[in-house]
Amino acid sequence: MENFIKVATDFSMYPGARYKTDGKFSxxxxxxxxxxxxxxxxxxxxxxxxxxxDGTCGYATSFLSEAFYKLGLKFGAAKxxxxxxxxxxxxxxxxxxxKEYIFDAExxx
Amino acid sequence: MPxxxxxxxxxxxxxxxxxxxxxxxxxxxxxxxxxxSISDIFTAVLGGYLGLYIAGKLTSQTSSERLEKDLxxxxxxxxxxxxxxxxxxxxxxxxxxxDAIQLFKxxxxxxxxxxxxxxxxxxxxxxxxxxxxLLTESRTLNxxxxxxxxxxxxxxxxxxxxxxxVKTKLKNLRENTIRLIIAINRN
Lengths: 109, 187
Known about the structure:
The structure holds two protein chains of two kinds.
Chain A: E1 4-6, H1 7-11, H2 27-45, E2 49-52, H3 61-75, H4 77-82, E3 84-87, H5 93-108
Parallel strand pairs in A: 1-2, 2-3
Helix pairs in contact in A: 2-3, 3-5
Chain B: H1 8-24, H2 38-91, H3 97-120, H4 125-146, H5 163-186
């Protein structure tokens, strides 16, 4: 297994909304099917998980907050942030937003 | 009957024309010397060269500035079109998640590219600041719109109590994008 996720090819070109009940390719589905599995593997292998956000048609706030908030909640914000590399050349400001969602989980816990 | 407006500039041009006409009608006012001094030739050549050099420099600077402005405006034109197209759909609270996230991706990319380009070009601090503030505005609006659930038709369910604020912010974003284009042209 590779420590790499390219959302556009590994998940969808059209990431959706927050919950699976909202339709296909939700943040919840991304978290459960891909993100948590790959992150756990990254922790075991001792290598950081790289997530490439480029190539999709864009991201809803609900998608990103659901996926990354839950990741922060499950593993702890600092641990998650230390073990992630996020690539976003098309929308560089998304990296800061994702960081906020991860640390929100810790602040709200 | 059409109204005729006479400006001071017209009167001044008329006076200058009258004076030049009076002088040129009598060539005896002018004297021609048959001697040419070396310093006069030198001054004339230098003056001609400087004139051509300055004109060339100004033309090159103007076309380079036009190119920079066109590059920035090209980034904003598709966004301006999308904002106009989607505004009535937002007003009707019927925007799809796909349309919304595409719009905010376009907005985010356009404003951050303009900000980067304006930083690269000298003397465009005002444009950089405006583009940065629009990027923040568009991210706030993106958060207000796409942080909601969607219905079975993939239409975003913006809460009715938030809708007036969303509309106002979208209207501001649309108008401020045009203001940014004007600021790029003027700077």
